[in-house]
Specification:
151 residues; mainly alpha
Length: 151
């Protein structure tokens, strides 16, 4: 597994760990309430789990498993993958900070921070798709005469 894919996968597991800790905090607070605002972390929990872990893990495995592009550049332009990585994780951090703050007391800056985080995450998915798209090839068509058919 090459470095970029390893970084994606390792970061995905860090996001999983963080989301499990946030989820545990939410569960403990549900059973033994110790702070009324802990429940505001629920969207952060889901987002870290689904975008931080699942999406990033899928991206890392895709970067690793998709067919090579060429001998010279087996993974194509790796800069796109790094840009996607930075945008995804930057957007996740912004969301994890701004979401609860905006829920506590909405401000223009927190609303804009949430918008920027969403834009970063959407751009990350597009950059990853653009990085991977050239590596998706059509399967060569088999010769019909070898398949026993064809006129």
């Amino acid at each position: 597994m090459h470095r970029q894919a390893r970084v994606y996968v390792k970061t995905a597991f860090v996001q999983l760990l963080i989301s499990v800790l946030v989820g545990a905090l939410l569960l403990i607070n549900a059973g033994l309430p110790f702070h009324p605002r802990i429940g505001l972390l629920l969207p952060v929990y889901y987002h870290l789990l689904m975008v931080g872990w699942a999406t990033q893990l899928i991206g890392g495995v895709a970067l690793w498993m998709f067919p090579v592009l060429s001998r010279d550049r087996p993974r194509g332009d790796e800069r796109l993958g790094w840009i996607a990585y930075g945008a995804l994780n930057g957007g996740l951090v912004l969301r994890a900070v701004a979401e609860p703050m905006h829920a506590i007391e909405p401000h223009t800056w927190s609303a804009w921070t949430l918008a920027v985080s969403a834009i970063l995450q959407v751009c990350a998915v597009w950059f990853l798709a653009i990085a991977l798209w050239p590596r998706v090839r059509r399967r060569p068509e088999m010769n019909r005469s070898r398949m026993g058919g064809g006129d």
